[in-house]
Structure formats: structure tokens, C-alpha cells
Design goal:
The protein is α/β, with parallel strands linked by helices. The structure holds S-adenosylmethionine (SAM). This is Methyltransferase-like 23.
Length: about 230
């Protein structure tokens, strides 16, 4: 990236506070944001909410194999890596700037060993086939274009075929009451559980020192394989 582009990069710091008795007072994640109107160039409110969920479950993360899809600037994935998960970041194979954002976010947080791969939802590509088994898939604000909903679930379902106990942790912004993934979940033998924001301290306008969640209506759900419907015996 040239000097001119670098000048368009700003910085936001997200601060997650530790509880009493834990070592250190806080964990900070610094996210470089590009001054550009493309979707994957900056942090979306959903990302702060998903990061808060990860922070709340940080004790479960060490050594978990985590893949973030549609990562953009990757706040949740970077936090997961800082909490000890083995993270892979991904965004559309057709958006190299977004893949560059994933790499830059790792660099700015001194994280090494996090592969960044181009994964376009719905495509069974060599990159998807090459992934190791994944325990947790992260997706923050990926359900924002109804035309993509089935492709996202197809990618998730493909990964769960290999690892039936994998979970898809995802946050979405309520943009239209008419949008639903219910029929698609049924079609792909998936099921979903809503996670109330108050159960992980995200029912606030300000999270991790950021006012980004504000008054946006963000919700969290966990999608898993409906093992009975999928005829899973493992
Ligand atoms: C609304 S942004 C959310 C970015 C980030 N997850 C966040 O919450 O801050 C949607 C992200 O999905 C990515 N994306 C869009 N279409 C995609 C596709 N077909 N396959 C994979 N990623 C895609 C975009 O590049 C962008 O990073």
C-alpha cells in the first residue's frame, strides 16, 4: 500500500476490562480503519457486540480453532487470537483490500501466525477445502444482503459437515422485519438459538469504550447443525 493510501488509515482502540482477581487490568485491541465507504473497511456495530461475547467467553477460547468469515477489519477475530484461540481470518476472495485489512489488523496488534484467506461465501473453493477442522465460526454483520444469506449458510454447513459440533457465532443488525433465515436453516438442517445481549453485558450503548453500538438494534445468535435432521451419528 502506498503513502497516499496509508494516510487514509485511522485508528480505533477497543478496551475490554478484566474482572477482579484476573491478571492485568484490561485487554486493548487496536483496529486500523480505512476512510472509505466500502463495507469491510471499518468496524461495524455488530463487531463490537460479537467481540463482547468473545470477551465474556474468553476462558473457553484458548486453543479453539476459530474462523472469521466476512471479517473486514477483524475486531472479533483479533480479540479471539489475543485470547489464545488459533484463528484464521477470511473475507471475499474478490476483495483483496479487505484481506489486506485483516493482515493490517493482525500487524497492529503484534499478532503473528494468523492465516488470512480469501473465502467467498457459497463457493467450494480450494481455500475452503484446505481449511483445517474449525470449532467456532465467527460472522459479524454478514447477514446484510438477503441475496447472500443462503451462500453464507452453505459455507457454514460445509464446515459443519466436517466438524458436526462446530458452532457459528454471529451478530446481525435488524434492518428489515421482513428478512428471515428460518426457511434456509431448515433447508440446510441447521438450527439457531438467540443469545440475549444482557446475558453477556452487551445491552448497552457503549461497549469496550466504544459508542458504536449506540442505538442500533443488534442481535446475537448461535447456529449449529441439527444433528438429528442431518442424520448425524458421530
Ligand atoms: C457489513 S461488513 C462487516 C465487516 C466486519 N465483519 C464487521 O462487522 O466489522 C460485511 C463484510 O462481508 C464481506 N463480504 C461481502 N460479500 C462477501 C462474500 N460474498 N464473501 C465473503 N465475504 C463477503 C465484506 O467484504 C465485509 O468485510
Amino acid at each position: 500500500m502506498g503513502e497516499e493510501s496509508e494516510a487514509r488509515i485511522g485508528e480505533r482502540v477497543y478496551t475490554f476490562l478484566r474482572g477482579e482477581g484476573e491478571e492485568g487490568r484490561e485487554m486493548c485491541v487496536t483496529i486500523p480503519e480505512v476512510l472509505d465507504c466500502q463495507y469491510g473497511m471499518y468496524v461495524w456495530p455488530c463487531a463490537v457486540v460479537l467481540a463482547q461475547y468473545l470477551w465474556c467467553h474468553r476462558k473457553d477460547l484458548p486453543n479453539k480453532r476459530v474462523l472469521e468469515v466476512g471479517a473486514g477489519v477483524s475486531l472479533p477475530g483479533v480479540l479471539a487470537a489475543k485470547c489464545g484461540a488459533k484463528v484464521i481470518l477470511s473475507d471475499s476472495a474478490e476483495l483483496p483490500q479487505c484481506l489486506e485489512n485483516c493482515r493490517r489488523s493482525c500487524n497492529w496488534n503484534n499478532i503473528t501466525g494468523v492465516p488470512v484467506v480469501g473465502l467467498t461465501w457459497g463457493e467450494i473453493s480450494p481455500e475452503l477445502l484446505d481449511l483445517p477442522p474449525i470449532d467456532i465460526i465467527l460472522g459479524s454483520d454478514v447477514f446484510y444482503e438477503p441475496k447472500d444469506f443462503e451462500d453464507i449458510l452453505l459455507t457454514v454447513r460445509f464446515l459443519m459437515e466436517r466438524t458436526p459440533r462446530a458452532e457459528f457465532w454471529t451478530t446481525y443488525q435488524v434492518r428489515s422485519a421482513d428478512w428471515s433465515i428460518e426457511a434456509l436453516l431448515c433447508k440446510w438442517n441447521l438450527k439457531c438459538t438467540g443469545v440475549p445481549l444482557k446475558t453477556f453485558g452487551a445491552d448497552r450503548e457503549c461497549l469496550a469504550g466504544s459508542e458504536l453500538p449506540g442505538r442500533h438494534t443488534v442481535q446475537m445468535m448461535i447456529i449449529t447443525l441439527d444433528r438429528e435432521a442431518a442424520g448425524c451419528t458421530a
